[in-house]
Amino acid sequence: MASDAPELFGIPLKYISLVILTIQNSTLVLVMRYSRIVSTEQYYTSTAVLLSELTKFVVCLYLSSKESIQENGGRLSIAKVYTDIMGGDSWKMLIPAALYTIQNNLQFVAVSLLDAATFQVSYQLKILTTALCSVVLLGTMLNAKRWVSLVVLTVGIVLVQLPSTNGTATSESTSPLTGLMVVFVACVLSGLAGVYFEKVLKGSRKSIWTRNVQLSLFSMVPALFGVIVVDGAGVRQNGFLYGYTGWTFFAIACQALGGLIVAVVVKYADNILKGFATSISIILSCLASVWFFDFHITLPFMAGTAM
């Protein structure tokens, strides 16, 4: 039976998006880490999250409007675009918007506390949290092979943390225990938000770009709240772009791109497949960390990464 899944150059779009997401994940963690250490004046992470959501909003609004033009015979109806975005069940995106905003802020915090390789491996705990959320919220049935894979993944993450707990962590891991706790919370939020978003996307006739307009629009509200409440005093004193470098804008662009790619993956694949695919980025990040950050790979770290 022929598949209705969209293709690009004869290749299913879900596989193309998974490959791009893997590359983006590897690049993001390295760029985020470097953007936090390249300058002695650290930028406010809440402002970076806000700009990332603004970027996604602009891009998705353009793509959503383009779809609307095609559906209306070449005419752009502002009223229809507004109704599609704000009407109906748009309120459903409030929950993942809040969760994603907090998660994105925690990512910046965690990558400031952990070296890039340790962060990347530890962050794969989101595969486990996503799987558990899929089982609970979507009723997903996991076979024995997947459950075993999830257990092995968890053990691997524990092994990766052994260098931090026995005092042989690299100098880049400024606060490994705190960093790990931040990563854990971010993974839980990622699992909840991702599965909820998947449920809304696959149960809706609205396009992924319209849903992403809603998601980014509603995300800007808590993101702005974070700027005002968390970093408001610093922003008022030093300015919104305090501590920004070219690497900061690169990190923001990578994070925004990831949000767009994830939407395609969630729509045409699923969150668990996304998680296992992005695990490949661990290898790329570890190799790059050795080269760029002088990261020293220990035996427990190698064993945990392999698992």
Quick synopsis:
The chain is mostly helical.
Question: What do these coordinates show?
Answer:
The chain has 307 residues and is an all-alpha fold. Helix content is 76%, strand content 1%. The protein contains 14 helices and 2 strands; from the N terminus they run ββαααααααααααααα. It has helices spanning 13-37, 45-71, 78-86, 94-113, 116-122, 125-138, 144-165, 176-202, 208-230, 232-238, 246-268, 271-278, 280-292, 299-306, and strands at residues 7-8, 11-12. A two-stranded antiparallel sheet has the order 1-2. Residues 164-173 have low confidence and may be disordered.
Q: Which tags fit this structure?
A:
single chain, 307 residues, mainly alpha, two-stranded antiparallel ribbon, 14 helices, 76% helix, 1% strand
